[in-house]
From TrEMBL:
<feature type="domain" description="Dynamin-type G">
    <location>
        <begin position="104"/>
        <end position="341"/>
    </location>
</feature>
<dbReference type="GO" id="GO:0005525">
    <property type="term" value="F:GTP binding"/>
</dbReference>
<keyword id="KW-1003">Cell membrane</keyword>
<keyword id="KW-0472">Membrane</keyword>
<dbReference type="InterPro" id="IPR030381">
    <property type="entry name" value="G_DYNAMIN_dom"/>
</dbReference>
<dbReference type="GO" id="GO:0006897">
    <property type="term" value="P:endocytosis"/>
</dbReference>
<dbReference type="InterPro" id="IPR027417">
    <property type="entry name" value="P-loop_NTPase"/>
</dbReference>
<dbReference type="Pfam" id="PF00350">
    <property type="entry name" value="Dynamin_N"/>
</dbReference>
<dbReference type="InterPro" id="IPR040990">
    <property type="entry name" value="DUF5600"/>
</dbReference>
<dbReference type="InterPro" id="IPR045063">
    <property type="entry name" value="Dynamin_N"/>
</dbReference>
<keyword id="KW-0967">Endosome</keyword>
<dbReference type="Pfam" id="PF16880">
    <property type="entry name" value="EHD_N"/>
</dbReference>
<dbReference type="GO" id="GO:0016197">
    <property type="term" value="P:endosomal transport"/>
</dbReference>
<dbReference type="GO" id="GO:0005886">
    <property type="term" value="C:plasma membrane"/>
</dbReference>
<protein>
    <recommendedName>
        <fullName>Dynamin-type G domain-containing protein</fullName>
    </recommendedName>
</protein>
<dbReference type="Pfam" id="PF18150">
    <property type="entry name" value="DUF5600"/>
</dbReference>
<dbReference type="GO" id="GO:0010008">
    <property type="term" value="C:endosome membrane"/>
</dbReference>
């Protein structure tokens, strides 16, 4: 019988698709099946396929080779197995937009957050050893927009609307925040050695006091969360004279930590402006302020220094500040080597989130009544916590992997559950295959980026 396209694809995935036996065909036709000829040149001119490069004696690939190979594998898994499930259950209506190639190919990103005049732009200038196009430095709020500082062949700036339509860059998802935000987004390109390895994101100063009443025209906290989700490192900048955490800053920190705790660091900038005794008091006050927002037993790593191109104002702690600055710079320069592991980690988190989202949506769709849908919908929003518990218990899912309750409730208010199909067992199986089979096989094939050898190469299993 004639096979459908879906049946052929499924047979290929299961390994049950067998090619016909062509033994003896080369002798019958006088052509060799490897692209050469049986005693003669190939009349079609087709070269034999290049043999795969054998692994090195150490059985490991370099960090760059591992990055390219693993990322290509992640792209394939996402497009063929994860993205179809996201589209089926409207994952992007609740979480982030579908990933594009630029998201996988993006360089490691560093996000800088802090109040105005704590030295964010000066910090970037210190790293690059020059100002970036569009940069303004001063004592009052000077950066009123998000600057994405990238490596480029020449100095130029790119408006946000243009930046968000370039699929080769990982910023297409920002278009969902509207034109008001995109008018406050700008790409800044310049030739720079450091920017060949990482991308820096400078942000507007966090508002405090009466200035918090100012309407930015877009959701600042959600934009910060979007960048933090995709960043490899998030730096929260303070200075000895700005240790308070405003309501807006508190919401931004909470949103950033929701993206990932392990990549958040604190920088106490301008620490050379106080004496040793004052620095101890400032450090204690900073940790107290942070503890009111970050309510976990783990303490965030704090770097103490002054990141500007000038001599220290107070030289009492020069040795300490030098060591701290060196530690932070080493962490930044080490980001490219750790980037592959982060991409895999984020991919796993997204796949798990997609699976949980599919279960939640299917459960609600199964309860949808024929009549009285609006009242039922309102009740389900109020009962969402019980729904989460039921889905977690029914499918053996970890409660910590579920989306934030209030955030999910808010998204559900305008969502039409009727457009969700019933649960597809094959869809869930495909996600399970990604986590239990495909990813381990990918890392076994190209090297495990979570393990490292002494010389910084990615080790194989």
């Amino acid at each position: 019988r004639e096979l459908s396209v879906d049946e052929l694809r499924l047979a290929e995935e299961n390994g049950s698709l067998q090619l016909p036996d062509l033994e003896g065909l080369d002798k019958a036709t006088g052509l060799a099946l490897d692209g050469g000829a049986a005693g003669a040149s190939n009349p079609f001119g087709a070269p034999a396929p290049a043999p795969r490069k054998a692994p090195s004696a150490k059985g490991a690939l370099s960090a760059t080779q591992c990055y390219s190979s693993v990322v290509d594998g992640l792209k394939h898994l996402y497009k063929t197995k994860v993205k179809p499930v996201e589209e089926l259950y409207k994952f992007s209506d609740f979480m982030s937009a579908p990933l594009v190639d630029g998201d996988f190919d993006a360089k490691p990103t560093v996000l800088l957050l802090g109040q105005y005049s704590v030295g964010k732009s000066t910090f970037i200038k210190h790293l690059l050893k020059r100002e970036y196009p569009g940069c303004h430095i001063g004592p009052e709020p000077t950066t009123d927009r998000f600057f994405v500082v990238m490596e480029g062949p020449e100095e130029r700036t790119t408006p946000g609307n243009t930046l968000c339509v370039q699929t080769s860059k990982p910023f297409t998802g920002l278009s969902s925040f509207g034109t008001s935000f995109m008018s406050k987004l700008e790409g800044s390109e310049l030739p720079n050695e450091l920017l060949k390895s990482i991308t820096l994101v400078d942000t507007p100063g966090v508002l405090s006091g009466e200035k918090q009443r100012t309407d930015r025209g877009y959701d600042f906290v959600r934009v910060c969360q979007w960048f933090a989700t995709r960043a490899d490192l998030v730096l929260l900048l303070f200075d000895p004279h700005k240790l308070d955490i405003s309501d807006e800053f508190k919401r931004a920190i909470s949103a950033v930590r929701m993206a990932s705790d392990d990549k958040v660091r604190v920088v106490l900038n301008k620490a050379d402006q106080v004496s040793t005794q004052q620095l101890m008091r400032v450090y204690g006050a900073l940790m107290w302020s942070i503890s009111r927002v970050v309510k976990t037993p783990e303490v965030l790593r704090v770097y103490i220094g002054n990141f500007r191109d000038a001599e220290y104002m107070v030289k009492d702690n020069a040795e300490l500040l030098d060591r701290e600055r060196e530690d932070l710079l080493n962490d930044l320069y080490d980001l490219p080597r750790r980037s592959v592991a982060r991409k895999i980690n984020e991919f796993v988190k997204r796949t798990r989130a997609t699976k949980i989202h599919a279960y939640i949506m299917s459960y609600l769709r199964g309860k949808l009544p024929t009549f009285g849908k609006e009242k039922w919908h309102a009740r389900q929003i109020e009962k969402m916590e019980a729904t989460f518990r039921h889905v977690a218990a029914q499918h053996g899912l970890a409660a910590g992997d579920f989306p934030p309750l209030e955030y999910f409730r808010e998204k559900m208010r305008d969502f039409k559950i009727a457009k969700i199909p019933s649960i597809s067992k094959r869809s869930i199986e495909r996600l399970d295959e990604v986590l239990s089979n495909d990813l381990p096989a990918l890392m076994k094939e190209y090297g495990n980026p979570f393990a490292s050898t002494a010389d910084g190469e990615a080790a194989s299993y």
